[in-house]
Amino acid sequence: MSRTGLWDSHAHLDSDYFTDDREELISKLQQDLDGIVNPGCDEATSAFAVELAEKYDFIYAAVGWHPEELKGIPADYLDKLAAWAVHPKVVAIGEVGLDYYWKENEPKEVQKRIFLEQIDLAKQFDLPVIIHDRDAHGDMLEIFQKEVSGVRAVFHCFSGSLEMAKELVKRGYYFGFGGTSTYKNAQKVREVMSYIPRELLLFETDSPYLTPVPYRGKRNNPGYLELTARNAAEVLGVPFEELAEQTTKNVKALFTKIK
Ligand SMILES: [Zn+2]
After folding, report:
1. Disulfide check for 182: which of 87, 106, 134, 213 has CB 3.0–4.6 Å away?
2. Which CATH superfamily is domain 6-254 in?
3. Quick count: other Cβ atoms within 10 Å of Cβ 120?
4. Cβ neighbours around 233 below 10 Å, total
């Protein structure tokens, strides 16, 4: 693959799935992509994300506690986040949010409290928030309609309805689209993607998950981002290069620490 001009706005290169070939993969990705944002999901993965960002110029980190990782969250987790937040390569708080899919996750009220606390911290440090929303669309929308304002955010791998998207677009939030937008049965996702103003659109892989067609079912990696972006260019009827340029602008508008 040649240089794409793309940014992967969401990849977990810290994942165990990359233990065997991480360095080799990253040196290849350095040829293809302009940059990668690697969100953490708990203390260890946030620390690893920062480590990767320190080691590689084109990798940036986000730090946060994912809604699936709230059991045993340290009492001083906000202090830990605050310490990371001032790091020049920590560009966002995330990934954070609500996940009502897994029954073993913490109760909704606990998830909401920790989510809101992390949003507050992001605002305090003028950082954007990377949001995970799985089967929690109603509560998520309500939070952004009634409780939260004045923060930049991206809804990663957005899976909400067109109606929800319209409400979020009104408030200027960003939307990340990944491999799922290439799936045959994901007409709804493509419909939403077509509605989103170009200046609020981001691409992502969510590596190692959600691998785009034709590699669905295999391990995802940021090298497959081009498949998602080319598919989107076709869906939206926009030249690929134009979309790459626009989404790169968007990454820098959202993650303002990236120059
Ligand atoms: Zn993720």
Report:
1. 213
2. Metal-dependent hydrolases (3.20.20.140)
3. 13
4. 16
Kindly indicate the confidence band of residue 1, based on its pLDDT and cuts at 50, 70 and 90: very low
pLDDT 10s digits, 226-247: 999 999 999 999 999 999 999 9
User: Ligand 1: distance of its center to the CA of 195 in Å?
Assistant: 23
- Nearest Cα residue to 106 out of 161, 69, 135: 69
Alpha-carbon span 46 to 100, nearest angstrom: 22
Give the Cα separation of 149 and 173 in Å (integer): 10
Structure tokens given for 61: 């980190």
13: helix, strand or coil: coil
Q: Tell me which residue of 127, 183, 139 sits closest to 164, measured CA to CA.
A: 139
Instruction: Give the tens place of pLDDT for each residue, 144-167.
Output: 999 999 999 999 999 999 999 999
For 110, 119, 173, the CA distances from 195, given in Å and listed in that order, are 33, 26, 13
Question: What number is the average pLDDT over the span 124-132?
Answer: 98
Helix (H) or strand (E) segment spanning residue 116: helix 108-124
Strand order in the sheet with 201-203: 6-8, 33-39, 59-63, 90-99, 129-134, 153-155, 174-177, 201-203
Peptide bond into 245 cis (omega under 30): no
Name residues with Cβ closer than 5 Å to ligand 1, which is an ion. Answer: 206
Residue range 76-87, pLDDT digits in tens: 999 999 999 999
User: Domain locations in the chain?
Assistant: 6-254
Ligand 1 centroid vs 10 CA: distance in angstroms? 6
- Beta strands (DSSP E) in the chain are 6-8, 33-39, 59-63, 90-99, 129-134, 153-155, 174-177, 201-203
